[in-house]
């Protein structure tokens, strides 16, 4: 990509962009970049106070920005659905959904729906959000779903026997699993979009080691603290540079569905496209995760032909055919 920066983004005038976790870090920098290119940006996050401050800071950098802020707590399906309902009622299109928000190695906790905090927020919240705003995405030509993972996905495993880490909570493994889940979701969504012949692509990225609030929950052991301090001093980069990979995936014209972008040197460096590792390409795991996510969230991608809504639509069609037949018979009688 030869030193691609946010200045190289195509004009985004008239486009609508939703960015989760937009109050800080790479999400905030992505909002600034899209606003500078003329997009209508919806900044979404849990804290309205932080969002409002972030919006005011953004106006300092992009005075003519078209920006709205909307509350979204990815750890609450009720909040996710409320956000989707408000967005769907207010906007007639969605060109880019940037699934950016995430939490990293917190103490053990659960979302309001009882899911392990990292799996529930980083994956299930975004799974539900994407499903609930999918009608707007499908109604918009050349739209994209850009999901942000992490280099930690390389160490991730799907713990099918204990997805919620209820037997033994290991924060680093739970985080890595949630980031692998982001990759599997991105790729399974792309497969479903292709099958449905939708004019939408699903893409992914990871920001390397960007200096953001995400690292506030530091590892506890002395060795880990020393290692992270060394990496932060030598291999980290600013949040605006960390945003480049998701900005490229969300806006560059040469991006194709299923593409994954990251720093050349894994933690920092120029934007490069890479194949995800074999665990991220596991079709069986991706399909299984999708089914589990549907069951846990109750969200089905009916417009892409997911099973439960499709069966309902078949039943509706049979009922309609029966009604039509009865009316025709009555008419001829």
What is the CATH domain class of the largest domain?
Answer: Alpha Beta
Number of helices: 10
Major sheet size, sense and barrel closure: 8 strands, mixed
Please give the radius of gyration in angstroms.
Answer: 21 Å
Going by helix content, strand content and strand pairing, the class is: alpha/beta
Helical proportion?
A: 40-55%
- Overall number of strands: 8
The CATH architecture of the largest domain: 3-Layer(aba) Sandwich
The CATH topology assignment of the largest domain is: Rossmann fold
> Could you state the CATH homologous superfamily of the largest domain?
NAD(P)-binding Rossmann-like Domain
What share of residues are in beta strands? 5-15%
End-to-end gap: 72 Å
Sequence stretches where pLDDT stays below 50 over 5 or more residues:
309-333
């Amino acid at each position: 990509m030869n030193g691609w920066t946010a200045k190289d983004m195509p004009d985004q005038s008239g486009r609508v962009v939703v960015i989760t976790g937009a109050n800080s870090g790479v999400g905030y920098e992505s909002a600034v970049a899209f606003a500078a290119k003329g997009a209508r940006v919806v900044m979404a996050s849990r804290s309205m106070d932080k969002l409002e401050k972030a919006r005011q800071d953004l106006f300092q950098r992009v005075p003519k920005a078209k920006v709205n802020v909307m509350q979204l707590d990815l750890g609450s399906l009720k909040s996710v659905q409320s956000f989707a309902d408000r967005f769907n009622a207010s906007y007639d299109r969605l060109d880019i959904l940037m699934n950016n928000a995430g939490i990293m190695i917190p103490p053990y906790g659960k979302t309001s729906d009882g899911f392990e905090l990292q799996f529930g927020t980083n994956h299930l919240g975004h799974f539900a959000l994407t499903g609930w705003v999918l009608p707007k995405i499908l109604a918009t030509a050349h739209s994209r779903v850009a999901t942000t993972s992490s280099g930690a996905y390389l160490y991730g495993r799907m713990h099918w026997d204990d997805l919620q880490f209820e037997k033994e909570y290991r924060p680093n493994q739970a985080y890595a699993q949630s980031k692998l889940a982001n990759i599997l979701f991105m790729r399974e969504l792309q497969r479903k979009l292709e099958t449905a012949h939708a004019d939408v692509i699903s893409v992914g990225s990871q920001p390397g080691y960007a200096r953001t609030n995400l690292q506030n929950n530091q590892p506890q052991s002395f060795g880990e603290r020393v290692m992270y301090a060394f990496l932060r001093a030598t291999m980290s980069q600013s949040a605006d540079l960390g945003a480049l990979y998701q900005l490229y995936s969300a806006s560059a014209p040469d991006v194709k569905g299923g593409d994954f972008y990251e720093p050349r040197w894994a933690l920092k460096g120029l934007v490069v496209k890479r194949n995800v590792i074999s665990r991220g390409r596991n079709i069986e795991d991706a399909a299984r995760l999708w089914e589990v996510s549907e069951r846990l969230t109750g969200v089905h991608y009916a417009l892409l032909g997911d099973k439960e809504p499709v069966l309902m639509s078949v039943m509706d069609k049979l009922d309609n055919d029966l009604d039509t037949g009865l009316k025709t018979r009555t008419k001829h009688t």
